[in-house]
Every structure is written in structure tokens, then in C-alpha cells.
């Protein structure tokens, strides 16, 4: 398949720059992958599409204040975006500067502390924080929330609240699992009252989620890697849901990628593709033709042109259905991307 097969034109005014006044106030496009039918809905009606005995799975990662500004001690300004926290004093990061910093040089960040460029790994720099204070504490004190590149304003106090899910728990992401941003505590309680179970996985979303595929043939794309963790409790809840005939709904592509990664890894020695609890790295790249092993239904925001996530939802719903759905959403002026509206997708089952 060609990358251009996943391109579309989006008018700039449809890129949501701010969240809705209330978390639950977004619109929701219901996409039936089996017959291609589309229905304009509102997010507040999501429970109507779920049944007692179903399971929804959220990603409970929490976004760190990963953006830092500073200067090279040798001269010149730098902008640092932390990609991954390795330990209390070491990170991998993207560094923007007029000239890339050399290994062994130092950067002064936020006019508060120094870091040493310990190594370079392709596009990422390994930074050693030369402070007794831990990386996460320094980021919380001096960093800025790393809003996506298509949001044009600097992060505000509103963003610090609304670019986190209400159930965020484990620090480590540099981008929010945006499908979860629609949920508030009242909606979670409403789902429970209906008999819908709730489970969590953790996948620390990396900055690569915003990168378009830059090769013509999608099979040549090298996927970025992200850390994930799935508990035994979540594995057990999924098994119980499947046994009673319920459906597993992934809230967001990151939750789906974590679940499908765990099933894929275990499938090496287990033809039944049972989920395996534990932690690991995933660079799973889901494209049309992929057979989903765990997830039956997907709740997700609208995604960027030529992105791996658009390819994922095309695999889940069918390419023609997604093209039709996106054309409809644009014509009906749905709001796109992180602060935008959502889709509820019923899987297109492969024959």
C-alpha cells in the first residue's frame, strides 16, 4: 500500500485548538465497519452503545511536562523535548538547535540546571541530568506541557488540566491518550451503573505519534517504540469478558496497541493468542489486513493524514469505510485531532 492512500485534505478551521467547555460535550460519529453505515451522535450517548458485561479499557498514562528551553554552554539556544525517562537522571530527548549539540557537551536548561549530552541514538540524544533532583521533579518544576505541533498556542493552566485524562496515573507520556480526554468521573460512574466493566493498561505515548509516514511504501516505515504495561487483573477481566460473550472496547489507539502487542508477543508460543501480563516495548504497526486478536470495538479521535494511526483505524473499520467517515466528518464540520470530536467504530470482521 502507498502512503498517499491515507491522505486527505483538512481545512485548518476544523483543527480544534481548545477543548470543549465540558469534557463530555463532544460529538461522536458512529461507524459500523460491517456495513459502512454512519450515524451522527454525541459522546454523552456512548453508554447506549455498550451492554452490561462489556469491558472498556483505558490507557492510564500521565503526560509529563516534557518541553524545556535553554542554551548550549558553547553558545546558541536549544529546545528540548523529552521522549523517554530512562531513570532518575537520564532521558532520551529530541533537541532542536541551529547546530546539533556534540556528545560530551552541556546544556543549561530553564536557567536552573545543566544536562550533559551523553550519547546520540539516531534522532534522539541521551541526556544526563547533572542534579541531585530527579528528572520527573525537575520537569514538574521547570518544564512545559508538550502540546501537539498542530495546536498553535503555548500551554496554559487550562491545558494542564484538560490535556490529562481524569484517570491518568503513571507519569511517562509526552502526548495524551486523547480518546480518554472525553471522559469525566460522572461518565465512568454511568458506565459502571450500566454493568460495563472498566480496566486499565499503561502505554507511554511518544512524540512519534504525530509523525507522518515519510516513505512511499508503508511497508518500509520504521515504527517508533513505546513502553507499555498490562496487569494480570486486566488480562483476567478481558478473559472473563470474552467467556461471557461481552465485547472489549479500547478507549483510544494506544490502549488498542498495548493489548494487541501483548497478544502478538504471546502468540509466538500460543496459537490461541491469550494475553500475557507484563511490561515491554512495542513498535507494532497495524495496517489494513491485520487480524485483531483482542479488541472488538474502538473509541478514538480523528487522526492526522498519512499517519500510522489513520492506517490503524483503516485496518479496524476498513479503508473504504474510514474514507467515507472522514469525508462525512469534514462535510459536517466535526472538530479534529487531540481536542476534537470522536468516533466509535464497530470492527469490520475479516472473512
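-> sequence recovered:
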Amino acid at each position: 500500500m502507498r502512503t498517499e492512500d491515507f491522505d486527505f485534505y483538512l481545512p485548518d478551521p476544523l483543527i480544534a485548538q481548545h477543548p470543549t467547555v465540558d469534557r463530555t460535550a463532544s460529538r461522536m460519529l458512529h461507524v459500523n465497519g460491517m456495513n459502512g453505515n454512519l450515524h451522527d451522535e454525541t459522546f454523552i450517548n456512548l453508554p447506549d452503545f455498550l451492554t452490561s458485561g462489556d469491558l472498556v479499557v483505558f490507557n492510564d498514562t500521565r503526560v509529563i511536562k516534557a518541553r524545556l528551553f535553554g542554551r548550549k554552554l558553547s553558545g546558541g539556544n536549544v529546545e528540548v523535548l523529552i521522549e523517554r525517562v530512562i531513570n532518575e537522571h537520564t532521558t532520551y530527548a529530541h533537541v532542536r538547535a541551529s547546530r546539533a549539540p556534540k556528545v560530551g557537551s552541556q546544556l543549561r536548561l530553564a536557567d536552573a540546571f545543566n544536562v550533559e549530552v551523553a550519547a546520540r541514538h539516531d534522532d534522539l540524544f541521551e541526556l544526563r541530568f547533572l542534579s541531585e533532583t530527579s528528572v520527573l521533579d525537575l520537569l514538574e518544576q521547570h518544564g512545559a506541557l508538550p502540546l501537539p505541533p498542530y495546536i498553535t498556542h503555548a500551554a496554559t493552566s487550562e491545558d494542564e488540566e484538560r490535556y490529562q485524562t481524569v484517570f491518568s496515573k503513571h507519569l511517562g507520556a509526552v502526548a495524551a491518550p486523547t480518546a480518554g480526554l472525553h471522559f469525566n468521573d460522572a461518565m465512568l460512574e454511568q458506565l459502571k451503573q450500566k454493568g460495563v466493566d472498566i480496566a486499565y493498561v499503561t502505554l507511554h505515548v511518544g512524540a512519534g505519534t504525530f509523525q507522518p509516514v515519510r516513505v512511499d511504501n508503508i511497508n518500509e516505515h520504521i515504527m517508533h517504540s513505546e513502553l507499555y504495561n498490562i496487569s494480570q487483573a486486566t488480562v483476567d477481566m478481558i478473559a472473563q469478558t470474552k467467556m461471557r460473550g461481552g465485547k472489549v472496547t479500547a478507549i483510544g489507539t494506544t490502549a488498542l496497541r498495548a493489548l494487541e502487542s501483548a497478544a502478538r508477543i504471546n502468540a509466538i508460543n500460543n496459537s490461541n493468542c491469550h494475553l500475557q501480563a507484563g511490561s515491554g516495548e512495542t513498535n507494532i504497526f497495524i495496517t489494513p489486513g491485520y487480524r485483531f486478536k483482542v479488541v472488538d470495538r474502538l473509541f478514538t479521535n480523528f487522526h492526522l493524514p498519512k499517519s500510522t494511526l489513520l492506517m490503524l483505524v483503516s485496518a479496524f473499520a476498513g479503508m473504504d469505510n474510514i474514507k467515507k467517515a472522514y469525508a462525512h466528518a469534514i462535510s459536517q464540520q466535526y472538530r479534529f485531532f487531540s481536542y476534537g470530536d470522536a468516533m466509535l467504530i464497530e470492527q469490520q470482521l475479516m472473512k
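The mean pLDDT is 94.
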